[in-house]
Every structure is written in C-alpha cells, then in structure tokens.
Amino acid sequence: MEHLDQIYRQSDISWFTPVELFKPWYAHGIAEAIMRTANLSVPLQIYEIGGGSGTCAKGIMDYMKLNAPERVYNSMTYISVEISPSLAKIQRETVGQVLSHSSKFRVECRDATDRSGWGDRQEQPCWVIMLEVVDNLPHDLIYAENQISPWMEVWVNKQNDRETLSELYKPLEDPLIKNCLEVVNSAKKPASPSGVRLMADTLWSKILPRPRRCWLPTGCLKLLEVVHDALPKMSLIASDFSYLPDVRIPGERAPLVSTKKDGRSSDYNSYLDAKGDADIFFPTDFWLLERIDHFCSGSLKLHEDASSSKRGKKRRTITLDTSSFMEEFGLPSRTRTKDGYNPLLDDFKNTKFYLSVPTHNVK
C-alpha cells in the first residue's frame, strides 16, 4: 500500500485501473475466459471499447500467442474502439512492442455510441471487452418532489455570471430517459398490491415528504443498443464498480466525484461544483446491467402478453465477484505474497465481472 501510495503521488493520474496495476495477470485471466468460451473453429475477433493505454490488448494478445493454438493467434484480430486520439497513439505503441501483434491489432478512433462508425451488421461471432467503461458513461438525473410525485428530467442551467450552475426540473420527454426508466422499473421486484401500496405512499408523502433523485445509466443503454445492433452475435465481458464508498452526492446510483491536488484526492458534495479535471465514477447495478443487456439484445420485452413471455432467452449471463472470476480464469498463484495476501483477489472488493454470451435458444 505504501508503494501504491507513492506511485499515485508521483503520477498525474488520479486512479489506476486493475488491468494496469495487475499487469499482465489481470488481462491473462480475461484471455483465458475467452479461450474457454469462444468457438475457436472460426477466427477470433475481439473488440475493446475504451482501451486505455493498451495494457489489456497487449496482455490478451501475449496470452494468445503463448497459450492458444497457433492458428488461433495467427488468424485473430483485435480492434480497439477509442475516442481519444492521444490514447489511440499510446495503444499502438504498447501493442507494437511485440512485432507479431501489430498486423493483428488496429485502433478505430471514434465514438462507440455512434452507430454509423460500426458499418454494416456483422453476423459472425466476436467478443466485446469493456473494462471500467460503464462507470464513466453519461448518466441522466431524474427528480421527484415526493414519494408519489411523477419523475421529472433534471436540466443544468447556467446563471448570468456563467459560473453558477443550478438545476431545472421539466416533465419527462427525452425518449432515451423514458426507455431507461422503463428498464429500471422492469428490474424492480414486484411490489405489494397497487391499492395498498398507493395508500401507504400517499400517507408517507403527507407525513414525511421526501424528494427522490435517481441517476439513470442512459449512456450504457445507448452504447449496448448500438453494439447489439452492429454485432448481434457478440459475447461481452465487462468489469466495473459494484458500489462506491463514501459517496456524498444524493440519489440512487449517485456518482463519486473527485479531484486530485498535490497528490491527494478530495470529493465533491455536488456534481454542480465539479468543473475541468474532475473524475466521475458511477456505481454499476449489475442486475440492471443484465436487464439492459437483455433489452438491447431483444430478449427482454417490456410490453409483452402472456403468450410471448415464454420466449427463450437469447443471452446466457453470469455476474462474478472479481476474486471469483480470477480464481476461475486467472493465475492467482503468480500474485500471492509470502504471507498469503493476494492483491489480485483481496483488493478491489467493490468490483465485479459481467459475462454475457448469445445462445440459439430462440422460439
């Protein structure tokens, strides 16, 4: 921990991803999960969204070169979809350290949520990797005055001095917000009978009125809609924060907003105060992520009758704690210390992996 603290103090980066801290073992675990699950009779194609400095890409390609059948490595392609030109350049340099990787790797510098960038639908199987992507995607905030008031969109308004920001509340109209709210509501457990529940909520709203705030993962919904449409047979591996400690900002799924100064991080009490170089992390509700994944793939219908509810699932999914994932697919013996402590398994307790693969179980 002292060594890690020193690294952070010496770096302008306010947070290192696990794939960077645990290289190459973290990426090797992901590569092993792909090898065990992929149909290796067809050329292996991997997309990574938001590839950072290329550490994951290099680690996976290194592992394939050393452990996969030669024909699998020789025929594989690894495509990084990266919105930042500066990171795209670093990725090419990182992967290019191994000469044989260069012909199999390319960076497409574009926004992954823009459907036009993906071109025609690709019907062959492929893999999509998203490491610490969902927590940085845009979220929309909705607000209600009390427990029974309707949800409203939250808009940010600039005052005349152009420095002070405030919130405006407007009726729900944005189709992406409406869609996401429907998926969120479908993910909630069935409530008590509507009449009894409504009476209870009405009573509480009069006795103890309490405003409600909810952050919706609209960016995740938009991204998965695009990716599922472009790559209908894709398999997905995503890892992210399942919860965040000491969040000061109110609301369900509220973000941690922090900034770094003189090697020390400090958190904001309001997202309205965060300007310039603030880092924003949202916790990922993995149960909701699964619902969004099923919705975007077409296997979850929000408005269906009893007969259509018997449709077979088109996705097979599992959520694992990072420690469980690495115990299964990684090489934890390589990161275990002499006293038995293993940072690969024992740290990042607030992160999970989500795996989703297509099936042929469609009626």
UniProtKB/TrEMBL annotation:
It catalyses: L-arginyl-[protein] + 2 S-adenosyl-L-methionine = N(omega),N(omega)'-dimethyl-L-arginyl-[protein] + 2 S-adenosyl-L-homocysteine + 2 H(+). One of its GO terms (molecular function) is protein-arginine omega-N symmetric methyltransferase activity. Keywords: Methyltransferase, Mitochondrion, Transferase. Its EC number is 2.1.1.320. GO terms for biological process: methylation. GO terms for cellular component: mitochondrion. It is an enzyme of class 2 (transferase). Gene3D superfamilies: 3.40.50.12710. It is found in: Mitochondrion. PANTHER family: PROTEIN ARGININE METHYLTRANSFERASE NDUFAF7 HOMOLOG, MITOCHONDRIAL (PTHR12049:SF5), PROTEIN ARGININE METHYLTRANSFERASE NDUFAF7, MITOCHONDRIAL (PTHR12049). Belongs to the NDUFAF7 family. Arginine methyltransferase involved in the assembly or stability of mitochondrial NADH:ubiquinone oxidoreductase complex (complex I). This is Protein arginine methyltransferase NDUFAF7.
